[in-house]
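Support request, please re-run this one:
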Amino acid sequence: SPEFKSALIGKLATELRVSEERMLDQAVLPARVRIARLLVFLSDQMTPKSDRKIIRTRLLRQDLAEAVGVTPQTFSRILHQFNAEGIVRSSRTQITITDPRRLNAIASRD
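Re-run finished. Output below.
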């Protein structure tokens, strides 16, 4: 039906735009910004209406690193920096965002 075709084309166009934005981000944004954006995204998905932003994940740091186009070592180093700065607190199975305002400020940089 024409409605289905239109909806499908709209969905594909949106996915293509998001994919292009993600590739552009990985090419030009600093790793710190990309990791902050990932943490904001994950916390919004897992705890959208909560003031307490906790990311519980079974994903390995390697998987999270790959999602933003950095090495696991870079991901761990930046996460450690966020820990030292009081922005997050992390363990093997969860990341708690302790200062969402600062994390959002980092994620908002272009």
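The chain has a mean pLDDT of 84. Residues 4 and 10 are 10 Å apart (CA to CA).
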